[in-house]
Amino acid sequence: MTDKYYLIQEDAHQERVQLPVKRPVQGPLAVDVTKLYRNQGLFTYDPGFMSTASCESSITYIDGEAGILEYRGYPIEQLAAEADYIEVAYLLLYGELPNGEQLREFDDIITYHTMLNENLKDFFGGFHYDAHPMAIMVGVVGSLSAFYHDSLDINNPRHREISAHRLIAKMPTIAAASYKHNVGEPIIYPDNDLSYCANLLKMMFATPCEPYQAHPIAVQALNLLFILHADHEQNASTSTVRLAGSSQANPFACLAAGIASLWGPAHGGANEAVLNMLTEIGDVSRIDRYIAKAKDKKDPFRLMGFGHRVYKHYDPRANILREMCRTVLEELADSNNPMFELALRLEEIALKDDYFLARKLYPNVDFYSGIIYRALHIPNNMFTVMFAIARTVGWVSHWMEMMSDPLQRIGRPRQVYMGSPRRDFVPLDQR
Ligand code: SDX
């Protein structure tokens, strides 16, 4: 297998330029163009980064053609079937599955950091009652900088680790408080006797007036959803966190940027958009009309929950979630849930349509997740907040990986300039 690539410059002297190659543990070879501009005065051009590796990473591996997703080498199917979310969080953060003692210690640390500074509670009251919870998340997570910025030397590995623990621990508390603000109920404090997922459900749905016990299937479903959403290589929000962090910004500000990016309906906001789409379609008899809209180039409508930049076959997470959907609906809701039936029928019809097959558009992680969240009585506008909670460990793992790299430098892409050539200023009375 070659270890160098040649670039032929299409100009007078047909110069051959030898470029080094980075050889991955698995996945495509990468042509290293780091010195291309300095040596050849050339840029590469790749809007949307369709063919660009932005970094080396050891955290997650995806093979889009084969539908493979691995966290630190472990297949997502095995982690989904065997692991607990906190166990997977440890794996992503530290690179190895924890033994019993390491898991207990990590779980205790995360539990210890779940409370918010009491002054933070006032932030929620400042938002309009119907503020979208993602807007509250962006604001409150960014404001954590004001509480911990002074105790944070991002060049100190121990400070970085404590910040990572704080973020993983506090996201459910902030999310639940955002939800309580929306429904006009008092904030419920974390219960350190509960697991990560059971604690979140209690902080969301308990009230001071009566005892609350999360349904075991709801806890199991949330645990699975969080494992499947924990990390996904260099997706838009993770790349946003890395780029923000590359300027040495503090991790709380970086994660606020990541949450903002995740909110987009092309990314993590798709789960909420899927349920809104299924509600709009309403009935199996209207599916063909919406399939036609999705195929119509003049119509901005897209089939939400379908398609993926990397997966050109089934998103392995969608397959796992379809089965969990069935289980949750049988146990918690009406097993012939119209939304689920509609989603199954939509998937079946779309995947017989040449438009979707030719473009390799299959259901992605967001297609079924919202139906499960709904069955857990989580409202549509909280779906992407759930995604953000789960993805926090992925974001902080990538941030830690980048900040511990001695060669880390600020990310600063260039451009292909297509504006006006140089021209002189024209005085106002001559325009
Ligand atoms: C996530 O990156 C990640 O890893 C993200 C994620 C993670 O875990 O972090 O996996 C989570 O964000 C999943 C994706 C959720 N988004 C959606 O479900 C929104 C709907 N999907 C699309 O908008 C789209 O598929 C993207 C954004 C997901 C991918 O966009 P690409 O790779 O830029 O593909 P594209 O827009 O260039 O589309 C290629 C073709 C186009 O048609 P042509 O111009 O070739 O004729 O496919 C069409 C598109 O019009 N197309 C769709 C479509 N998605 C793509 N047509 C109808 N419905 C769709 N959903």
Q: List low-pLDDT spans.
A: none
Helix content: 40-55%
As laid out across the biggest beta sheet, the strand order is: 1-2-3
Please tell me how large the radius of gyration is: 24 Å
Largest sheet: 3 strands, antiparallel
Ligand inventory: s-citryldethia Coenzyme A
Order of helices and strands: EEEHEEEHHHHHHHHHHHHHHHHH
Q: Return the average pLDDT rounded to an integer.
A: 94
Strand content: 5-15%
The tally of beta strands, per DSSP, is 6
Terminal residue distance: 62 Å
Oligomer: single chain
Shape annotation:
globular
Number of helices: 18
Question: What would you say this structure looks like, in words?
Answer:
- The structure is a single chain.
- The chain is mainly alpha-helical.
- It has helices spanning 36-40, 76-82, 85-94, 100-112, 121-125, 133-148, 157-183, 196-205, 216-228, 236-245, 251-262, 270-281, 287-295, 316-331, 338-350, 354-358, 366-375, 383-403, and strands at 4-8, 16-22, 30-31, 60-63, 68-71, 74-75.
- A three-stranded antiparallel β-sheet has the order 1-2-3, with no helix packed on it.
- It starts with a strand and ends in a 28-residue tail after the last helix.
- Bound molecules: s-citryldethia Coenzyme A.
- S-citryldethia Coenzyme A binds at residues 48, 232, 235, 266-268, 270, 294, 302-310, 359, 361, 364-366.
